[in-house]
Write a structure and sequence with these properties.
about 350 residues; ten-stranded mixed β-sheet; two-stranded parallel ribbon; 14 strands; about 35% helix; about 20% strand
Length: about 350
């Protein structure tokens, strides 16, 4: 029987697990303190846990973490890891350094089935979902690297390879583990989940009652362009998607981020900006404009800087708060899925 990875348990779930074993409820908090506060991954080091129960832990549970398959570091300090899971599956995570802290971009699936036309993640189809323990493992491994600098992850974005709402339950557990005050204690407003637009997931997320941020990968001002870029748009057209976003804002009171990758000659004209401002009017949101990170297997080119600035200026002048995302990872395989595709396809 496979051992259960303690990194995959929310505190509540671990309390229930311990009670079911006949242990006291406090045992879960005790284990949480060892693995998240004291950063112990060896049961024998848990000195205030009885020796007999440590033997039970070793027999039935584990604290397995991904291993670093390869690591890239950019001149700006961005770190990209290709991590290998226990079954050999490989996933990416990226650390970006901001003035306000260190943000890690976490993958939620091995590969992706969403098929976005500009994205490297879809070059390799989804093999499976990641478990909550495997997502937590990405953060723990990055923290181990940052410990060399006496630093740690302060912000989490579930925006790497995979569609988070296509792996809803595991992503939800991951979020609660990140946010747990007795665990990593990352504030809800320092956690962001990004979806390409799975409307049922957005509606479910609206009912969660936590203050975690929501980002929507929009990338187009209308269905015609979005259908070309994002197959999910055929299942959930723009009007249905924006209705779900309005419902989320009403129930959560939270502002939504719309991610918008600018692609030369496709979605970056002032007419596109005008249409985008029109459809977003009245929604509590802001737009994060993203310069395209070209993928050699894809035909799209990044917008000219002057067009990016003009697009941003139009939105800001017409009632839509907008920023241009700072670029990270110059000189490394920065786009989602690039590093994994490079190795999986044997392009060493």
């Amino acid at each position: 029987m496979a051992k259960k990875n303690l990194f995959g348990y929310t505190l509540k779930a671990l309390e229930e697990e311990m009670l079911a074993r006949g242990e006291k409820k406090y045992r879960a908090t005790q284990l949480y303190q060892w693995i998240y506060i004291k950063k112990v991954t060896d049961f024998d080091m848990m000195t205030d846990v009885s020796k007999s129960f440590r033997e039970v832990l070793k027999e039935e549970y584990c604290l397995d973490l991904p291993t670093v398959f390869t690591k890239q570091v950019a001149t700006d300090g961005t770190i990209k890891l290709l991590l290998e899971m226990s079954d050999g599956a490989k996933v990416e995570c990226v650390l970006m350094r901001y003035d306000y802290g260190n943000a890690i971009c976490v993958s939620s699936q091995v590969g992706c089935n969403m098929g976005c036309a500009f994205c490297a993640s879809g070059l390799l189809r989804r093999d499976r979902n990641l478990t909550s323990a495997e997502m937590v493992g990405q953060v723990i491994v990055m923290n181990q690297i940052l410990a060399e600098e006496a630093d740690n992850v302060s912000h989490v974005v579930v925006m790497g390879t995979g569609e988070p709402f296509d792996n809803y339950d595991n992503v939800s557990s991951f979020i609660h583990i990140m946010n747990e005050a007795k665990g990593l204690a990352i504030g809800a407003r320092h956690i962001t989940v990004s979806t390409c637009g799975l409307v049922p997931g957005i509606k479910r997320y609206a009912e969660e009652g936590i203050q975690v941020n929501l980002a929507i990968s929009l990338h187009a001002p209308n269905d015609t362009i979005r259908n070309e870029l994002m197959p999910v748009s055929r299942a959930y057209p723009m009007e249905e998607l924006l209705d779900a976003v309005r419902e989320y804002v009403e129930k959560s009171g939270r502002r939504v981020t719309f991610e918008y990758i600018l692609i030369k000659g496709l979605n970056d004209s002032l007419e596109n900006a005008k249409e985008l401002a029109s459809i977003l009017r009245g929604i509590f949101c802001y737009v994060n404009l993203i310069p395209l990170n070209p993928v050699k297997e894809k035909p799209y080119e990044r917008s000219l800087d002057k067009d990016t600035k003009a697009f941003s200026l139009y939105l800001n002048n017409h009632g839509v708060n907008c920023t241009i995302r700072k670029e990270w990872g110059t000189g490394i395989d920065a786009a989602c899925g690039q590093l994994r595709a490079k190795y999986e396809k044997g392009q060493r």
